[in-house]
Design brief:
With 190 residues, the protein is mainly α. Among the domains are: 31 residues, no CATH class; 36 residues; 64 residues, no CATH class. Helices cover 49% and strands 0% of the residues. The chain is built from eight helices and no strands. Helix 6 crosses helix 8. The protein is extended and about 60 Å long. The two termini are 42 Å apart. The relative contact order is 0.06.
């Protein structure tokens, strides 16, 4: 967006408004993509060795990933809540509601049930052969179990994008298998 604004000599806001107009008129469809979190080194970080920084960043991102997965699991649990949703939500924020609200789906006689689950398949022998072939290609961005599992599940990273691996035929080939299951399989050895 910044490059487009600079190239056109227009403000970012004006470009966003134009894109919004085109989307509303049905000429284009916009969807978020390429979200990147930016980080910068603080002055005290320069005293650390590259290995210490890498270890710290790995722990930071692994923790963030765990928290994001936990947050999504809580959202699914909320959507599947069989009791009064308003009461449940208020209780989460520390405001107990003494009785059901009377206006959510559950209170009106339509209780929530389990959300439909996608078909989960097992990792096949063909998948294992594909993974071995991919490992034989020795891409720097796919070193390690976690980056490889992310790639196989269709989760891009700056490194895979930089190496244009998101265009690789194997990118996302295991997207119907949960990430944790793919990661566990890779850690167990293929």
């Amino acid at each position: 967006m910044a490059a487009a604004a600079e190239s056109l000599g227009e403000s970012r806001e004006r470009i966003l408004k134009a894109l919004g107009f085109l989307e509303q008129s049905g000429d284009i469809e916009m969807k978020p993509a390429g979200l990147r979190h930016r980080f910068r080194l603080l002055p005290g970080a320069k005293e650390k060795t590259p290995r210490e920084l890498a270890t710290w960043l790995y722990a930071l991102f692994t923790n963030r990933e765990t928290l994001d997965i936990s947050r999504l699991e809580r959202i699914v649990a909320f959507a599947e809540e069989p009791a009064c949703l308003t009461r449940h939500l208020l209780a989460y924020f520390g405001e107990p509601l003494p009785s059901p609200c009377g206006h959510c789906g559950c209170c009106l006689g339509t209780p929530a049930g389990p959300l439909p689950r996608g078909r989960e398949r097992e990792i096949s022998l063909a998948d294992l052969q594909l993974i071995r072939g991919l490992q034989a290609e020795r891409h720097a961005a796919l070193r390690g179990h976690r980056p490889l599992a992310r790639f196989l599940c269709g989760i891009s990273s700056p490194a895979t994008t930089r190496e244009r691996l998101t265009r690789h035929d194997a990118f996302g080939c295991l997207e119907t298998i949960p990430f944790q299951k793919v990661l566990a399989q890779l850690q167990a050895g293929i």
